[in-house]
Amino acid sequence: MFNQRLLLLCLPILILIGCANASLNSASRVGLLIEDTIDDQGWNSKGYQGLLNIHSNLNVEVTFKEDMNTEPKVKKAIEEFVDDDVKLIFGHGHFYAELFTEIAPVYPDVHFVCFNGEVAGENVTSLQFESYAMGYFAGMIAAAMSETGEIGAIAAFPWQPEIEGYQAGAALYGENINTHVSYVEDWYDSELALSYFDKLKKQGVDVFYPAGDGYHVQVIEEARSEGLYAIGFVGDQSDLGESTVLTSTVQHVDYLYELIATQFYQNELTTGNLSFDFEDGVISLGEFSSKVPDDLRMKFEQAVQTYIETGELPTEPIM
Q1: How many CB atoms lie within 10 A of CB 83?
Q2: In terms of CB atoms within 10 Å, which of 26, 85, 113, 241 comes out highest?
């Protein structure tokens, strides 16, 4: 584990050396700030993969810093990035929105990008995943596959649109389905998330939606050990148990990173708050489990396609 972490921490140096002939803008680098660690198998890992995609596919020098979760750390990191000719800085989460809005005027030659927050300024952009629909489909799938009529979500925060969507999608199945939601009030508290799992299991919940990327893997693994179902979050978690993970609600952060960097280097990146959904190719459902009958899988795939084409979510249960 120590060697793996050492290798990961050395990657920015290796990347900077390896692309000295960057074709888009050899004097301009891309930097990434992450609140926690890049190896969480979820949100942060996908942000890091997006950075690697920028390096590989756009031939641009990149670097990153982990554990950037306080204002002093972020300000110091930005200073170091600017000294290192970084002109595009990603802050991988809602945490950076207010900070970037405050700091951006100090660095008018740098473009700041964060996620799922509200920003303002001439050189600041926030990328919003419209996650209500993905939660809506997750709720429908959970309800359609539940054998007990009890389904659950273990969410990080009440403001998550995917949880509102999860409840609304499940509600299509009427009184036969009871939806339980527990809030961890933290992205990473796996101990509390697992305690909620045990509580919901005792209430008969047999399908879980762990909507927190710092604990979702642990919850899915616990569901697998108990012979229960789960729906993956942020990434495609089918590799954690094909018989356990019915499908996943995938946010293709890595693709979005590359898209935004391309727009930046082509001088086409706009400021303000931008939204992305299924029709933009950055949200999708993951691989379906073989436990989901083929006819049901095809109906859900068609429902997603209809939503992409029309913007209309299902109004009746899919059985």
Answers
A1: 8
A2: 113
